Task: inverse folding
């Protein structure tokens, strides 16, 4: 059926209620580090004792830029914001950013998780992904 | 210290050659290196390439009738050629072979490199824009060291000035700080002229046992390292992660290994070829290689310390900013340049009296290589 919203990849994020989004990460019980995307083995200490967690939906900007030309394999709009957001869990997430002017952000600027459209796929569904927007 | 010398080097110029196949490029470089070595025979061949496809090294050696021995293609991102060199030197040191041909070949499309390193969902989400990762690194460098955009432009001006005297470089034309800053913004703070061009080329090196031969350029050390767990943007690793400020970057790991094996220190270096995929990458490399203190790199560029004629010339070949970057060939292109520097045959870009030289690459993986040559 066309006209659905489909995630760019299952298991990255969910929307438990309208307008509410969360990133699906994991916490390593052995080294107490958080990671994203979720996996069954810790990328830092190799422990397999990882528990699935929903990550904080707010964070601060660690770095940012604007992408003006569509990179390989990308069919969404340009320009778009790109950067790294630091979450309270001590985790940094590579992400899109809902800005098109670099002057709209600063180091440490507060941002909130959102879900944004990318492009329509061959089935007529709207492909969506996680992103962060200034608060 | 390895017991390996460089018996011959060869190059196909770096640029764009629509009428030549990647095999053609490799043949040119390999022929030149074997001719210089004075004996076309070798026991094994290692070929660095990331994009040339299946059995790419075999195709080059088939074209010149030099197959029969082992031929291995080696891929380690931007460090592919250096990885091939490390394996070859190790095999000679271990007694497996006496002479090994090492070459690197590549033909890259224009524009942002498409890399299978990124999973399809990262591409679809717009998270596979390599220059954007470079931009984040450049922005952090500026924040943490006070490097200015003008100093980034000065790196480009320096390398492009060096490239004027390199007939094998893609760009052999000077530029100015004003021109660099007037070129279009690719990803803030990086302008077009601050980024190297993925392109085409080949380089070849013949290694032989016996570093004590009179006048020989010795391959004193080859080191290859990958990023430690948790190293997030230290080197373009598109993963999420923890604070990496206390995690030693792969370039430093490789440099430490190489300095120990070669028995030299950063203070002994006479000339360096380092990864200048973008202008900020060169300045990061200074610190990661130990040739400057934290935050000193901007001043080094202002003072011309790394310009030809300065205290420690960096990228006398013009660097990737002048030559462009054919992935599999670029690390060996550095070795070709430094071999010529140590032989005092580098012409107008000669570093006077160079005896200790260092080559560095870092890129996808992350992989970092450091090679030290001495004479």
Result:
């Amino acid at each position: 059926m066309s006209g659905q919203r489909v995630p760019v990849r299952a298991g990255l994020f969910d929307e438990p209620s309208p307008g509410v989004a969360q990133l699906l990460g994991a916490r390593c019980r052995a080294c107490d580090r958080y990671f994203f995307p979720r996996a069954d083995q810790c990328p830092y200490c190799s422990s397999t004792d990882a528990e699935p967690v929903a990550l904080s939906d707010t964070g601060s900007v660690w770095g940012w830029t604007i992408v003006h030309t569509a990179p390989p394999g990308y069919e969404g709009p340009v320009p778009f914001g790109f950067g790294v957001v630091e979450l309270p869990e001590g985790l940094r997430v590579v992400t899109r950013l809902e800005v098109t002017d670099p002057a709209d952000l600063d180091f440490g600027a507060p941002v909130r998780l959102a879900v944004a459209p990318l492009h329509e796929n061959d089935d007529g569904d709207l492909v969506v992904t996680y992103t962060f927007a200034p608060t | 210290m390895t017991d390996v010398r460089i018996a011959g080097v060869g190059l196909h110029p770096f640029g764009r050659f629509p009428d030549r196949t990647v095999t053609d490029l490799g043949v040119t470089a390999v022929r030149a290196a074997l001719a210089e070595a004075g004996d076309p025979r070798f026991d094994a061949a290692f070929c660095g390439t990331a994009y040339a496809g299946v059995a790419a090294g075999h195709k080059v050696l088939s074209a010149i009738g030099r197959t029969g021995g082992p031929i291995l293609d080696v891929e380690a991102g931007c460090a592919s050629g250096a990885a091939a060199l490390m394996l070859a030197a190790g095999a000679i040191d271990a007694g497996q072979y006496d002479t090994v041909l090492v070459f690197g070949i590549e033909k890259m499309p224009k524009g942002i490199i498409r890399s299978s390193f990124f999973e399809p969902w990262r591409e679809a989400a717009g998270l596979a824009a390599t220059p954007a990762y470079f931009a984040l690194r450049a922005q952090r460098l500026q924040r943490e060291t006070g490097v200015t955009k003008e100093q980034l432009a000065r790196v480009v001006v320096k390398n492009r000035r060096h490239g004027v005297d390199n007939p094998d470089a893609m760009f052999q034309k000077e530029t100015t700080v004003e021109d660099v800053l007037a070129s279009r913004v690719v990803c803030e703070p990086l302008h077009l002229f601050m980024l190297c061009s993925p392109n085409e080329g080949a380089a070849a090196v013949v290694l032989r046992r016996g570093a004590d031969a009179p006048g020989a350029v010795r391959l004193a050390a080859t080191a290859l390292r990958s990023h430690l767990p948790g190293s997030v943007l230290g080197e373009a690793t598109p993963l999420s992660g923890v604070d990496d400020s206390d995690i030693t970057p792969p370039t430093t790991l490789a440099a430490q290994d190489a300095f120990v094996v070669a028995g030299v220190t950063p203070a002994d270096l006479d000339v360096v070829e380092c990864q200048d995929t973008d202008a900020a990458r060169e300045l990061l490399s200074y610190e990661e290689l130990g040739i400057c203190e934290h935050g000193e790199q901007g001043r080094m560029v202002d003072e011309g310390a790394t310009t030809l004629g300065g205290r420690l010339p960096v990228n006398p070949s013009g660097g990737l900013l002048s030559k462009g970057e054919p992935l599999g060939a670029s690390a060996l292109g550095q070795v070709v340049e430094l071999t010529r520097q140590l032989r005092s045959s580098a012409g107008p870009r000669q570093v006077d009296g160079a005896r200790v030289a260092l080559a560095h690459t870092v890129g996808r993986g992350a992989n970092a290589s450091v090679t030290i040559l001495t004479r």
